[in-house]
Design brief:
This is DNA-binding transcriptional dual regulator. One of its GO terms (molecular function) is DNA binding. Keywords: DNA-binding, Transcription, Transcription regulation. InterPro entries: HTH-type_LysR_regulators (IPR050950), LysR_HTH_N (IPR000847), LysR_subst-bd (IPR005119), WH-like_DNA-bd_sf (IPR036388), WH_DNA-bd_sf (IPR036390). By secondary structure, the protein is of the alpha/beta class. It has three domains: 82 residues, Arc Repressor Mutant, subunit A; 96 residues, 3-Layer(aba) Sandwich (D-Maltodextrin-Binding Protein, domain 2), CATH 3.40.190.10; 97 residues, D-Maltodextrin-Binding Protein, domain 2. Helix content is 45%, strand content 22%. The protein has twelve helices and twelve strands. It is elongated. It starts with a helix and ends with a helix.
């Protein structure tokens, strides 16, 4: 009984409308309204403010929502634990990575995992680090690969390797054959295409420039890694990307800096105190073996 109340309550809280919540739950609107009234009677307090055009949570409702969501997460963990397949002949893993990893890390990593556990189905998603952390905290994805520091406090993180960033140009760029490291002055005179400000990579670049009191001439910003690679390969613009990208892209050349950009720790993120499927535990072991 209480579980049904919780699911009905959360549906109304999310939809802010009894009719839409009832449609989502596949029940009639009067039935849903009656169930919510019964729940409010049981708890001896109103959970929703029905006076406006939108249904809104009362202060008591906001408090109860937090515990209701926690209860649902733990019950879902229990259901998954019951049905977990320990021999890894089948299963499911949801993994999110930041966009720069798509270029050089995703393919070999997924291939290694698939070779060991061919029966495990993987859902690989590319998203910003802030969204990865949010979705792990909400138990929408199992694991994420991103950078320190993680902003959410309810995550466990493990450093898996250190990534270096490098200045890159196309192979026809005048600096493509340069062996002497670029001074900060020369660096600041280049014209750049960079990932936009929402990316962790861009924040790392901005921190470096601020530390050395230099400004970059950014002529193009984009949220598409492929666009960065294509434009740099076919123009006189420079960029800054993870060093392994140049090794895998024949059209790109890394140019040394007199004061290199500092490395950054790559981390594997998971929900703290959450239940982890056999597939999730196997992936964690793959990423941390030998450390």
């Amino acid at each position: 009984m209480l579980l049904r109340y919780i699911r009905y309550f959360l549906a109304v809280a999310e939809q802010e409308n009894f009719t839409r919540a009832a449609e989502r739950l596949h029940i009639s609107q009067p039935t849903l309204s009656q169930q919510i009234r019964q729940l409010e009677t049981l708890l001896d307090t109103p959970l929703f403010d029905r006076s406006g055009r939108k249904i809104q949570l009362t202060d008591a409702g906001k408090v109860w929502e937090r515990y209701a969501r926690q209860a649902i997460r733990e019950l879902d963990d229990g259901m998954r634990a019951i049905h977990d397949v320990e021999d890894l002949h089948r299963g499911f893993l949801s993994l999110a990575i930041t966009p720069t990893f798509t270029t050089y890390l995703a393919a070999p990593l997924v291939q290694r995992f698939h070779e060991r556990y061919p029966g495990i189905r993987i859902n690989l998603t590319e998203m910003m680090q802030s969204e990865i952390e949010k979705q792990i905290g909400e138990d929408k994805i199992d694991l994420g690969i991103a950078f320190t520091p993680a902003q959410f406090t309810d995550l466990d993180t493990t450093v898996i390797f250190q990534e270096e960033l490098a200045v890159m140009v196309g192979k026809h760029h005048p600096l493509a054959q340069r062996a002497q490291p670029l001074s900060l002055e020369d660096f600041s005179q280049l014209s750049f295409i960079l990932l936009s400000d929402g990316f962790a990579t861009r924040q790392h670049i901005n921190d470096y420039c601020s530390r050395h009191h230099i400004g970059l001439r950014v002529v193009i910003e984009t949220n598409a890694m492929n666009a960065v690679e294509e434009i740099v390969s076919n123009s006189l613009l420079a960029t800054i990307l993870p060093e392994p990208v140049a090794a895998q892209r024949q059209q790109l050349v890394a140019v040394p800096l007199a004061i290199p950009l500092p490395g950054r720790d790559v981390i594997l993120m998971q929900r703290r105190n959450g239940w982890h499927s056999a597939a999730t535990r196997a992936f964690i072991h793959l990423m941390t073996e030998g450390k």
